[in-house]
Amino acid sequence: MEFDLIERIRRHTEVHRDDVIEGIGDDAAIVAVPAGRELAIAIDTLVEGVHFPPGTSPADIGWKALAVNLSDLAAMGATPAWALLALTTPGGDEAFFDGLARGFAELATPYRLALIGGDTTRGPLTVTVAVHGFTTPGEALLRSGARVGDVVMVTGTLGDAAAGLRCLAEADASPYAALVDRLNRPTPRVSAGQALRGIATACIDISDGLVADLGHICTASGVGIDIEAPLLPRSSALLTHFVEADALDFALGGGDDYELCFTVPADRAGELSSTMARLGCGATRVGRVVEGSGVRVLDEHGGVYEPSRTGWNHFAA
Amino acid sequence: MEFDLIERIRRHTEVHRDDVIEGIGDDAAIVAVPAGRELAIAIDTLVEGVHFPPGTSPADIGWKALAVNLSDLAAMGATPAWALLALTTPGGDEAFFDGLARGFAELATPYRLALIGGDTTRGPLTVTVAVHGFTTPGEALLRSGARVGDVVMVTGTLGDAAAGLRCLAEADASPYAALVDRLNRPTPRVSAGQALRGIATACIDISDGLVADLGHICTASGVGIDIEAPLLPRSSALLTHFVEADALDFALGGGDDYELCFTVPADRAGELSSTMARLGCGATRVGRVVEGSGVRVLDEHGGVYEPSRTGWNHFAA
Binding residues for Mg(2+) 2, per the UniProt record (chains A, B) (predicted)? Predict the structure, then answer.
């Protein structure tokens, strides 16, 4: 049974890569890393009822399980290459597996990402994906390089996914489809991450929320960060359906956006804005790196704003 | 919270490796594969109540989650290097995490295996490990190279783990500690797998049961395999506590043994027996590769024996 399921997913995601010596079907895959490249590796699990609501379509689950991992590669500036998928499900329903495979393949295909291994087990619904991508020695984007005076920027818009989750509680969520779609089908900023190599001084993807994730950059870099709340990029969908205070809290602490947040020397910020606009996601200056520690959020008067949420805590949720 | 837990496990498993450029603590790990080596990658999940009984000690869970993955590397003849651990648990109990970390580290340390990444999520207890090991181009042990006339051999003894699982149902399992230990603390045959490089024509590890796993070699190699039931190596613990018919069924179909089963040209079998004896696990000739398809089990009179179990099916279990 195990091989049938993984085999089904493989068929949806078939891609030929010279660096895959042995793909699915043996005890392990055998792959070759190109000369002169290093390997970025990440693993992330989605649990039903924690990372996606019960009732999420299998295609959305397949997409999101890969997206959150590709987002980790994006935050390193890595080029995606291979993935493994470990799926635990209560049963073997055919439509579920086909749906999950389709969603996974939809996102994998444009990146020529090869599924090289997997495991299927019986149990409560959880999906774990491990991804591998290539980096050039010394060019990976770390969390530890932010310097006082750097500008802080984010791609895309913030808060939509958390707002989408809130909207799912409504009897009819269809007016909020744009927000729900951002929750279920996050776009990993892979090209944006690659464009940051050699320019950004630190980078992270926003999974737990802007303030929480910037906190990791502060800790790793030994700096503080001041965010200017009025600068935060928010979508028209978010601002249409939510009052300003909620929209701001979602943007600061909602999480699940999978945008990139990065620091960059002030004299490179303009060039990056243009690059990111060409890539379709855009990038907005939201703050700056300062001496000290931790993240402060400043309101339009320069006073300190206290967000009501500071990020998801999976064990406290 | 996520980082605290993985960080705790990392402390138990700390090992310095020059090929780990960035370990735990960023969005992805960065590693370097040595020049001239390829990478073997496997992933496997253990689910509470499916792959280990409720009540299994956290240390045993940590050990086994790594062991079943190292066994996949062993079956390829690969040298272990790095692992990632994705843990889903209902809560954040400190003793549980310390126990799991200790069990994982006990097995990882002798191999100098580095934990380079992970994820902790809230949900029903499941443990997914992804492992990476090195192979030399062209030397990985595949399932597809068995040739008619080859001898079929297995390391160690068969059936103990399945017998151990049966014993756990007893009110007092202490007389069966040797069998239960084989269930909870399987020994991946890493050195044995490395010794098979360039000699074995096909290899697989026994996770689903001897007959089921040899069936994969038959399919991949386009051959049949005849097993001689009287030759199957069984431990004295198994033969002491179970009647012959049960002991034979456990050995043929019980699964969870994590011994290696391999095919080898007849003129290399003696040499391999000596090598495996030196490595401490031993290896026993149990059958031969024949024309045809599928696995036949022959009794002491050369008649076909029908085992009552042919391997675990995780979805039917």
Answer: 44, 72
Q: B44–A119: do the CB atoms touch at under 8 Å?
A: yes
Which tens digits make up the pLDDT trace of B268-294?
A: 999 999 999 999 999 999 999 999 999
Q: B31 and B161: one domain?
A: no
Q: Could you say which of A84, A123, A126 has the minimum Cβ distance to residue B41?
A: A84
Six token digits for residue A312: 């998801």
**Residue-by-residue DSSP string for B91-121:** S--HHHHHHHHHHHHHHHGGGT-EEEEEEEE
Please give the pLDDT value at position B299: 92
Smallest Cα–Cα separation from A69: which of A98, A40, A28, A95?
Answer: A40
B119 annotated to a ligand binding site: yes
**Chain B partners of A130 at a C-beta cutoff of 8 Å?**
43, 84, 86, 130
Residue B282, phi then psi, degrees to nearest 5:
70, 165
Number of domains in chain B: 2
**Residues A162 and A118 occupy one common structural domain:** no
The answer, yes or no, to whether residue B4 has pLDDT greater than 90, is: no
Please report, as a single letter, which amino acid is at residue B175.
P
pLDDT at res. B8: 74
Mark yes or no for CB contact B124/A126 under 8 Å.
yes
Probe site for chain B from A26, A129, A142, A261 (most B CB atoms < 10 A): A26
* Contact of B133 with B78, CB cutoff 8 Å: yes
Question: What ipTM was assigned to the predicted interfaces of this complex?
Answer: 0.93
Give yes or no: residues B86 and B171 share one domain: no
How far is Cα B104 from Cα B86, in angstroms, rounded to an integer?
13
Contact B40 A47 (CB under 8 A): no
**Binding residue numbers of A for substrate:** 51, 256, 312
Q: What's the domain range around B229?
A: 151-298
CB contact under 8 A, A50 and B122: yes
B256 carries a ligand binding annotation:
yes
Answer whether A202's CB lies under 8 Å from A143's CB.
yes
Is residue A84 assigned to a domain? yes
